[in-house]
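Follow-up to my post from last week.
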Amino acid sequence: MPRFPAPVASRLPRVGTTIFTVMSRLAAEHGAVNLSQGYPDFGASPRLFDLVAKHMHAGSNQYAPMAGAAPLREALAAKAEATFGTRYDPEHEITVTAGGTQAIYTAVTALVRPGDEVIVLEPVYDSYVPAIELAGGVVVRARLRPPAWRPDWEAVRRLVTPRTRLVMVNSPHNPTGSAWEAADLAALAALTRGTSIVVVSDEVYEHIVFDGRRHESCARHPELAERSVVVGSFGKTFHVTGWKVGWALAPRELMAEFRKVHQFVVFTVNTPVQLALAEYLAEPARYLELPAFYQAKRDLFRAGLAATRFRALPCAGTYFQLASYEAIGDEPDTALAERLTRQAGVASIPVSAFYEAPPAGPEGRLLRFCFAKEAATLSRALERLARV
Ligand SMILES: Cc1ncc(COP(=O)(O)O)c(C=O)c1O
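User reply:
Got it. Predicted complex:
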């Protein structure tokens, strides 16, 4: 095995193996039910697979245009207009990406200059901070607090300075399962009014909202739409996280900068999948049925948790359920998550993984369980959790 003969000066010295990889590996080692990483254990639509095969066999196997296959950008424009009432021009304002992660990375890389400040809300999805640091930006953290986990906009306002370049937001929110209300859009619009701040709005769970809620997208709010890069993911919406196809919507001025980076990060995303997704999107029922589909899973999981010593926190959206283990003990969440995987046979994610420093108090005694699983998988996990 060749070895590099000198020390490597890391650009991300604090980044190691992520907790998601660690927990999934531990789950496999111990035969645990894996409710840690956020992906479904059920199949996607065979119709979608047939469409991919159709386009492959029809010869659509060479590079798509840099911004994405035209039929998919048109389908995304129609979807955004139908859901948010906002018209995005497929030619200049929509780009297909290799998943939401690449869209987020590309937006940050395109917009953040060394020394620029970027406000994030903790607990924060793990890809944001490394992207900011690689761009030379300065991470500025605000805290979301239970039980609602919605931003304290006054606290966020106090963090804004003339150097603030981006505010990065995520609703429905991973890991807390919270979702914004219209008042949050209004508060963010007021906070950024008259500034050159750009909002990166991670909305990969846009179609997974419960109890009759409406997804409050930055694309829905006319003022925010003017300053937002809105990120979506087909992986989350059509149960194909391994396909890594997503998109970004943004006003032309921002999208022009986004595409300058996009073309050198991936240039373009695989063609037959894009064409298949374009056709599949023609029936809105395919994503409009998601709230009911996942709400049934949420309710099953929460009902089961009620018979354990875990206490379920409110869950307004996403396929994640937070549970407090205060009744079980006060060991650190990482220790409990490991012990549960080894001894009880259920893998989860300790919520401290989403913070720079593990939070004290009730926020530090939470585990995240993914309920994007077959009913039988959830039942097996619940039986085991009931014994803890
Ligand atoms: C909040 C959030 N943003 C972005 C992503 C990444 O989406 P994709 O798989 O499309 O890259 C995830 C995936 O777990 C997520 O939870």
